[in-house]
Design a protein that fits this description.
alpha+beta; three-stranded mixed β-sheet; globular; disordered N terminus
Length: 117
């Protein structure tokens, strides 16, 4: 089972993209977020992607399951120091995944996940 969401954060798949944004400065790099900002972003992502433990079978034995916001925040420590992804990148990925969790592995909006982790 592939546990990509949120951030593999991701990001966090959040139920349909109803919220406009996480409220965190969209230009901030993910590697620069403080604990409060990480939590806020992760809560947004989990909501947009359908809630913690939401799962989808994507074929070829791949199942993507949305992590909890707590699990998501712990993922930040796994980011490479060279990661340049921003909050805007993470929100765009969550929005793409909100329509279909399988987008976490196929959407260009989520490509940063594989560059940062």
């Amino acid at each position: 089972m592939l546990r990509l969401a949120p951030f593999v954060l991701v990001l966090a798949a959040c139920g349909g993209g109803d919220a406009a944004s996480s409220g965190v400065d969209s230009s901030k790099k993910l590697t620069e977020l403080n604990a409060t900002e990480r939590q806020q972003l992760c809560e947004y992502m989990v909501e947009v992607e359908g809630g913690a433990n939401t799962s989808k079978m994507c074929g070829d034995g791949v199942t993507i399951t949305v992590k909890s916001a707590t699990d998501c925040t712990s993922t930040f420590s796994q980011f490479e120091a060279s990661c340049t992804a921003t909050v805007a990148n993470a929100e765009a990925c969550a929005d793409a995944a909100g329509e279909d969790l399988c987008n976490l592995v196929g959407s260009s909006s989520c490509a940063f996940l594989f560059q940062c982790l």
